[in-house]
Each structure stands twice: as structure tokens, then as C-alpha cells.
Amino acid sequence: MSEALARESPTSGQQEDCEGGSRRWSWRLLVPAGVGGALVALYAVATPFVTPALRKVCLPFVPATSTQIQNVLKMLENRSGSLVDIGSGDGRIVIAAAKRGFKAVGYELNPWLVWYSRYCAWRDGVHQNTKFYISDLWKVSFSHYTNVVVFGVPQMMPQLEKKLEEELKCNARIIACRFPFPCWIPDDTTGEGIDTVWAYDLKHSGGCRTKSLEITPETES
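Below the sequence we write its predicted C-alpha cells.
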């Protein structure tokens, strides 16, 4: 019997070596596959956040504080009509405005934030009064909005000021958060520090006065 075991032992040893080699080979395949999958997932998640930063004017996502939201709503008192939030982030301003009766729209370049905003609007029961679009603000016309909220950065404010002055009607109100517009004089201001909010009525701007002159018929002397 011992001779039989002796004859079988080399074969069993070879089988164990083969099984061990197979397991090592499997790990060699699984580790690169796992790392590659993790990198692909990281790229998919990070790209929407990194891509905006590569544009000419970076508009980073910084969530609005509860104080900022209340200050914006204060500047919207006695206002009605449509509202747009430029760079709507996670949709907090749009949702808060919808709860106050506005038909509110948000434009945001980051698709993950847009999808999250839509979910939050549905969760809070205001999805019928809100819309969120994945879009570059420079490629959108805001001409049909009467209330505009902007969370901008200093680099973009001069160009955005010109764009809004050209597109909006004279009854529009623009609310700037964190940073004011460079040339317009605010009609109202509330809050302090990062929670400061500036409200501008376009009818008081030079551009709107120019529009009024253009549409006023000439009278005979």
C-alpha cells in the first residue's frame, strides 16, 4: 500500500501545483481588471466636474447656504412670472422659488447636478413647476425670463452683465449672489459676507433706457 501511495504522490503534487498556478494567474487578471474598472468609474464621475473648470470662465459648484436662499426669496417678494437660476447647481434656489409659486428653471453644465436637482424637485413635490437643463449659459437666451438669479464669479460678471442687458426685457429683476455686477447700481441689497445678495431692476439700467428710446416713435416738432 505504501508503494501505491508513493506512486500516486507525484501526481497529486503536480495537481496541487497546477491549481496553485491557476489561482495566481486568476489574481493577476483580476487585479488589473479591478484597477481598470475603478479608473473608468472615477473618470465617469469626475469628468462632469472637471470639464467646466477647463472652460474659459470657470463656474465652480458651491452649494447655496440657507441664509442665501432666504435672502434671494426676500428679493423676490411681490414679484411674479418666470424665474431662471443661471448655474443652478443642486437646484436649491429653483426648488425654493417653485415653492413660492414661481415657474422656475435652472441651467447647469454638470449633468450629475441636473439629475440630482430633478430628483430633489420630485422628492419635494414641485417637479411640475420646475425644469432643469444641461446647458452652457453662454449658449442660452434668457429673453423670456422676468426674474434671474446668478451665482457667478468675478471673471464672468462683466460679460454676463452685457448679455443680460441685451436679452432681458425692461421689467426684469436680476439677483446676484456672492459677487455684484461691475457696472450696474443695485436697487436693493441684503445680507452680509458670502450671503450678500444684490437686486437690480433692469429698467434703471442704461441699456434699458436705450431700448426705450429705440421703440419710442418719433414725434413731429
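Strands lie at 82-86, 103-108, 130-134, 147-151, 173-177, 188-190, 197-201.
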